[in-house]
Amino acid sequence: MAFYRRVGSVPPKRHTQHRRPDGGLYAEELMGEEGFSSDSALLYHRGIPSALVDARPWELPDQTLTPNAPLVPRHIKLHDLFPGEEHEGTDPVTGRRLVLGNADVRISYAVSSLTSPYYRNATGDECVFVERGAATVETVFGALQVGRGDYVVIPRATTHRWVPTGDEPLRTYAIEATSHIAPPKRYLSRYGQFLEHAPYCERDLRAPSEPLLAEGTDVEVYVKHRGPGGLAGTVHVVPEHPFDVVGWDGCLYPYAFDVADFEPITGRVHQPPPVHQVFEGTNFVICNFVPRKVDYHPLAVPVPYYHSNVDSDEVMFYVDGDYEARRGSGIGRGSVSLHPGGHSHGPQPGAVERSLGAEAFDELAVMVDTFRPLDLGEAGTAGDDGRYAWSWSGRGPSAGG
Predict the structure, then answer these.
(1) Domain 52-69+84-242+251-259 sits in CATH 2.60.120.10
(2) Which residues of the chain have pLDDT under 50?
(3) Which residues make up the binding site for Fe cation (predicted)?
């Protein structure tokens, strides 16, 4: 982030004494990126943020990745991963099932109704999209109320937990980076302000507005971190509740953004995917396709042209509406399509003709483009329909061809 905020009680001058009502000192913690040379926040704790009383290994959910071989486009049905009432025994953190991943980003899905453990991702930022349901995201910076259509961006090493609320199961699509996640640089001035051509701005971002203080002793915090050969997990037991911050200020904090506040950029002819971009990380971008008016040239073709992702894999999560280019392929709400680099893709047969004359599309999708190949997680393999690759020809091993 690059937008200064101040919440709760902080002293007039940084790195100076900040005293409790009883005269004792609060503990000042600097949480910063890139070795003290990028965005940071100063947090003032009642206790000592480094204190531990115990630690033990945490066995992470299955992180196994297998190559997309043979190289084919795939259709993964996320809603089939949590059938019936299975969500009643899961939470939004430990219940995540890995769909796709590489060394830069991991994409997981969860359907849950339980409160997650206190959790800290020490490998990178997280961007979690709420497909359905609602939750309170409690963090060391304060709380966020989030619901259907919200992106929740949580900086690396932020202690937090998810508390599902309401009657509907919480469906979350988690994009976990090994880097930071931020608005695209081309949307920002050199000082970090959103520019006039950006499809959203500071007013659209929701951040914690007051401290969240809690009491407790010997509290468990689940930490995902780097380990030998990949990811590892540890449970830290801290002597006092981690939500003990009386105030903070700076430019690094969690925030939420409602996809309904994204203002689509349209034109006389079909616009390329970068106009739909919402966030970026190292070696990947996040885009969203929202309900919008479409191309208004008299001879326009509103659906995408066939295209080859020579530098990237494309992952599309179909959230809502009617995605015109994929009609007839079996893709619907809760589907994920993977179009790998090296394979041309585009509209299904008949989609171009059906789209002619359309004035608007009612669709909502979240896209992740990666600049290194994606492998299949256990959920990607389990949810693969096995037929999508042949949907353009109507022939193939699963079609009897």
Answers:
(1) yes
(2) 399-401
(3) 307, 314, 345
